[in-house]
């Protein structure tokens, strides 16, 4: 029955591409998230999760896999034939991909090569977040993410409809339209065309709020000088974006005891934490600073500080931070070449799609995040405590993100009873958890009472 529907739909539209298969019904796991304002608090929104198209079963009418290890050239001798023959199917989220939700929580359990998912709204489009002059907050449990694994949460300037078109019947509901600042060439379908030989890359601006395991974490804007998704070919794919980005990794920036599983770490990765990221703008609306706070055990923890030659102490990503870091650590200048923070901000102004993934790199370790990346004698090459001895394939990994919320600056997190909520040089939240109020003591101190 299922088969005959698929066969007839394939035959009915021979020119169609990126079709939908019907072996497994696509049931998006539901998830809630919140939008917040300072004066009205937070409102719960109902969304759902969809699995990226590349992770899905792509098959012929008879159920043969079109891409067992790269495309099968007998089934897919060229893009048109492949698109006419192959369909993207629904996903068994929990069983095959280890993806489950519960209320506001999303858990990814590593198995079968991890997963990459997106947040959908109630019209089956990707939620298009606008975070300029706003903050984005989530809780995360990284305690079970070991060396060489990465539980990531980031923004990509993907098409909100996933590129739904005459040649793409699947769209956002089936997780199409992925792009990022690496301009990946391994995407099976690019704008409705089957990327049989991997000649097409899919580039877009990317803002990594969270790339982390229990040992290291990194916050990274990756600007590209393109608007929306841009499909590249050949050498051009290496020229449009900043794949390394201007990252802030507390370990790399010299504070090896700020984030980690040790009792002496300031942010303790054995426990759930809240991660706040603020996108501050200047008077002209240009992105001027990306600021990070953690909240754990009711305590607001500002990001670690770094002193870079010629700069006052800084704990947020600013243009000065990026330029100084490039000079001091001899990092690539691609960030500034591609428009830097200003370009990142222009992209975020247009809107961003939320991507959450769990992946690993067991070949050489994920050293750019958590180990030694480069010549040990050079400053800044140590990104975390992981070594080759810590990279093993037999580790179960899982990550849980929950309570995703977005809103005005200072609207998504609050201070606890007796916590500081204002005063000169104070930078944390100025809202107090109910039923407390922020009470002025003196110009240097206000307190939640
Ligand atoms: C590719 O498809 C052909 C035709 O269906 C099949 O005979 C062959 O075994 C497939 N190759 C692989 C590697 O799956
Ligand atoms: C879902 O979350 C609720 C509230 O946190 C909890 O009581 C319940 O056990 C969870 N359900 C599952 C299946 O994990
Ligand atoms: C995708 O293809 C459509 C035409 O089918 C075109 O209008 C659109 O610009 C293309 N998108 C990208 C990102 O190239
Ligand atoms: C993007 O930047 C590269 C430099 O890496 C430059 O060669 C290219 O012309 C720029 N493209 C656009 C559209 O500005
Ligand atoms: C690491 O950060 C914490 C919290 O900001 C600070 O108290 C500590 O002195 C820093 N340690 C180093 C070595 O910079
Ligand atoms: C990495 O391996 C070394 C040597 O076995 C061990 O001492 C260390 O605790 C491991 N670190 C992590 C983060 O697993
Ligand atoms: C957020 O709170 C901090 C600290 O109280 C304050 O300095 C800042 O101006 C507030 N920002 C906004 C937009 O309210």
What does this structure look like?
It comes from Mycena metata. It is an enzyme of class 3 (hydrolase). Residues 413-449 form the CBM1 domain. 12% of the residues lie in helices and 32% in strands. The protein has 449 residues and is mainly beta. The chain folds into two domains: 27-54 and 93-412, Glycoside hydrolase, family 7, domain (1,4-Beta-D-Glucan Cellobiohydrolase I, Chain A, Distorted Sandwich); 413-449. The longest helix is centred in the N-terminal third of the chain and has 11 residues, at 2-12. The model is unreliable at 1-14 (pLDDT under 50). Bound molecules: 2-acetamido-2-deoxy-beta-D-glucopyranose (7 copies). The site of one 2-acetamido-2-deoxy-beta-D-glucopyranose has 7 residues, from loops.
List the helices and strands and how they pair.
Layout: H1 2-12, E1 19-20, E2 30-37, E3 41-51, E4 58-59, H2 79-85, E5 87-88, H3 93-97, E6 99-102, E7 105-109, E8 115-120, E9 128-129, E10 134-141, E11 149-156, E12 189-190, E13 193-194, E14 200-203, E15 206-212, E16 217-222, E17 230-233, E18 259-260, E19 267-268, E20 273-281, E21 287-296, E22 299-302, H4 319-329, H5 334-337, H6 340-350, E23 352-360, H7 367-370, E24 398-408, E25 420-422, E26 438-442, E27 445-448
Parallel strand pairs: 1-5, 2-24, 18-19
Antiparallel strand pairs: 2-3, 3-8, 4-5, 6-7, 7-24, 8-23, 9-23, 10-20, 10-24, 11-15, 11-23, 12-13, 14-17, 15-16, 20-21, 21-22, 25-27, 26-27
């Amino acid at each position: 029955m299922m088969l005959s529907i698929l066969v007839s739909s394939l035959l009915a539209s021979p020119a169609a591409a990126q079709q939908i298969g019907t072996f497994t019904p696509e049931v998006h796991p539901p998830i809630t998230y919140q939008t917040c304002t300072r004066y009205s608090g937070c409102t719960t929104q109902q969304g759902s999760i969809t699995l990226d198209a590349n992770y899905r079963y792509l098959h012929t009418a008879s159920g043969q896999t079109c891409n067992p290890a790269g495309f099968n050239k007998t089934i897919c001798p060229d893009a048109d034939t492949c698109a006419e023959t192959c369909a993207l199917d629904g996903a068994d989220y929990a069983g095959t991909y280890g993806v489950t939700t519960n209320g506001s929580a999303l858990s990814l359990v590593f198995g079968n090569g991890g997963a990459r998912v997106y947040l959908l709204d109630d019209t089956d489009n990707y939620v298009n977040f606008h975070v300029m002059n706003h903050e984005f907050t989530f809780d995360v449990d990284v305690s079970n993410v070991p060396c060489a694994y990465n539980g990531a949460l980031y923004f990509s300037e993907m098409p909100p409809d996933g590129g739904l078109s005459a040649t793409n019947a699947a769209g956002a509901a089936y997780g199409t339209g992925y792009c990022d600042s690496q301009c990946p060439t391994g995407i099976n379908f690019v704008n409705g065309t089957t990327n049989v030989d991997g000649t097409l890359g899919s580039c877009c601006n990317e803002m990594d709020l969270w790339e982390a395991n229990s040992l290291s974490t990194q916050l990274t804007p990756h600007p590209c000088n393109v608007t929306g998704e841009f499909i590249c070919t050949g050498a051009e794919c290496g020229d449009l974006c900043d794949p390394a980005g201007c990252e802030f990794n507390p370990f790399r920036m010299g504070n090896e005891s700020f984030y980690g599983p040790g009792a002496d770490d300031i942010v303790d990765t054995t426990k759930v934490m809240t991660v706040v990221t603020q996108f501050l703008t200047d008077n002209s609306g240009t992105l001027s600073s990306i600021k990070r706070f953690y909240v754990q055990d009711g305590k607001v923890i500002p990001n670690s500080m770094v002193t870079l030659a010629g700069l006052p102490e800084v704990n947020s990503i600013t243009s000065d931070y990026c330029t100084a870091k490039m000079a001091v650590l001899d990092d690539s200048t691609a960030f500034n070449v591609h428009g830097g923070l200003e370009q990142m901000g222009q992209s975020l102004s247009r809107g961003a799609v939320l991507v959450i993934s769990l992946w690993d790199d067991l070949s050489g370790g994920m050293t750019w995040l958590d180990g030694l990346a480069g010549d040990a004698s050079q400053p800044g090459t140590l990104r975390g405590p992981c070594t080759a001895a810590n990279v093993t394939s037999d580790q179960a990994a899982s990550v849980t993100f929950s309570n995703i919320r977005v809103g005005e600056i200072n609207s998504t997190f609050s201070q606890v009873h007796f916590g500081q909520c204002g005063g000169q040089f104070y930078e944390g939240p100025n809202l107090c958890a109910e039923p407390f109020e922020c009470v002025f003591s003196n110009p240097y101190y206000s307190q939640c009472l």
